[in-house]
């Protein structure tokens, strides 16, 4: 089954499904409550933080997170992590 997934380019998606499912194990319970993975494509994982402070903290942890994720998923799976703060939601005028 795994070989079939690799041949069809699905391994990456399966790996990332594993990240989303095991996010708390990988980043720790505290971080998992404040950061959530939003999307993944071409080696870039987009993570949304629940506050500007957490976004800043997450940015300082990016290198460590990439290392931990690649330990779980295989080298080179995650190349960059983009951190978005809560301000990325577009607010409509009142």
Care to give the gist of this entry?
This protein is an alpha+beta fold and 94 residues long.
Task: Specify Rg, calculated over alpha carbons.
Answer: 14 Å
Low-pLDDT runs of 5+ residues are none
Distance, first to last CA:
52 Å
Number of helices: 5
**What is the percentage of strand-forming residues?**
15-25%
Shape: globular
Helix content: 40-55%
Element-by-element helix/strand order: HHHHEEHE
* Average pLDDT figure: 81
Class computed from helices, strands and strand pairing: alpha+beta
Strand order of the largest sheet: 1-2-3
Largest sheet features: 3 strands, mixed
Question: What is the number of E strands?
Answer: 3
Question: Can you walk through the features of this model?
Answer:
The chain is α+β, with helices and mostly antiparallel strands and 94 residues long. The chain has helices at 2-7, 11-21, 23-27, 29-34, 52-73, and strands at 35-41, 44-49, 80-84. The protein is globular and about 40 Å long. The protein starts with a helix and ends in a 10-residue tail after the last strand. The mean pLDDT is 81.
Salient structural properties:
about 90 residues, alpha+beta, three-stranded mixed beta sheet, 3 strands
Topology:
Layout: H1 2-7, H2 11-21, H3 23-27, H4 29-34, E1 35-41, E2 44-49, H5 52-73, E3 80-84
